[in-house]
Amino acid sequence: MKRYLTVVSLLLLCGIQSIKANVVLPAIFGNGMVLQQKENVKVWGKAKLNANVLITTSWNNKTYTVKTNASGNWKTTIATPTAGGPYSITFNDGNKITLSDILIGEVWLCSGQSNMEMPIKGFGNQPILNSNDILLDAEEPGVRLFRIEKNMSRTPVADVTNKWEHANAVTVKEFSAIGYQFARMLQQKLKVPVGIIQSAYGGTDIEAWMTKNSLTGFTDFKTPADSAKVIKNDPAVLFNAMIIPIIGYNIKGVLWYQGENNRMNPLTYAQKMAAMVKEWRTQWATNQWPFYYVQIAPNVYNDHKEEIPLLYEAQAQAMTLIPNSGMVVSVDAGSQTTIHPPNKTIISKRLAYWALAKTYGKEGIAYMGPVYKSLKITDDKVILSFDQIPTGLTAFDQKLKSFEIAGEDKVFYPADAAISGKTVVVKSESVKKPVAVRYAFKDNAVGNLYNVEGLPSAPFRTDNWDNTKP
């Protein structure tokens, strides 16, 4: 009898606690957050069962009412004004909680593997260029940071444990060098608050960031047994743990830097990128927000060297498969000693060019470098033509490098290349009857062909031969 009364008492206590429970919000909704401006932004959480939750926004003193379901879950939208703040939002189901220091502005998500994860403080013996100078200017109230801790799961994870942080030398030091600098540049140029969400994990395959549904039809990846230990490159485990908890939070766009881990299966990479982006956009149930990404940089790879150029090619192809996307080229910003190039500022800036020109409509800003269009063979010379060169080509007073030329034997030789008007003329004494040209089409080849606007050409080839053998 005594035991029965104890159990009843515990159940009653739990019931009372449930009745008195405050509104519970996901971690992404918190003090100091940035909400996307001029939108009906989604808000959700838990509260008392079958109760009304009153949501009051300080920017217009409007109150929204939403009813919880039998499980206590609720979801609604609230209208945000033009950029500004700080504001507050009050949630009341009989017990009131208030979020304060809220800014309205632009929100971006940055994701991928280690080159996106790499913080301003750098990695061991691997610096970020000018990191201390970046930290000198880090204290900016108009930039807010939300860094998701690395995690993995075979099943969907409901929430994370992180919080929004102000930008200062201490918080910025730990944040993505690319993500933070992109946000800071937008904040300076748009003159509005910017929130940046980091969800990145070094050494990871694209398959781990995809859903099992979006991987349907692909066979070139390992599917572990359900009883196997979870590892970070299992399909969908990063999507489940590091993307699902923030799905629905209104964002302006996504930045992506990943690919090195897929150098062993590059031929399906473009299609996987397209499938991943399509699924993410579907899950967000919103318009096709922009997806801007970085082509991997040159490096001396120890394995799968021949596949690296094919990955370059796949990443370039992805732009034709993914609507509202753009690729940053880093062929001139790599490193011969580390897979983590120190100059993240130039990459952030090139991502910002895409965003400012294409997303925010800033006219006059170039965002793409020369794109190979066609070739013409004249005697022992190959003449290459390009798109995206309104004012022409340049190598900034340097000799063009990393061009190769081949004849019908498919053997490539180093070539002399020179700019002639809006074309590049390529030749070699070793090839009298040229057939094909390649530019920076090796794992460690550095390129220096730019348009006059200062943006580089991506690695390319004019042939479609098997890259792994003559």
UniProtKB/TrEMBL annotation:
UniProt superkingdom: Bacteria
Gene Ontology molecular function: sialate O-acetylesterase activity
Residue ranges that the Swiss-Prot or TrEMBL entry lists as coiled coil: none
Residues that span the membrane, as ranges: none
Keywords from the UniProt entry: Hydrolase, Signal
Pfam families to which the protein is assigned, alphabetical: SASA (PF03629)
Name the record gives this protein: Sialate O-acetylesterase
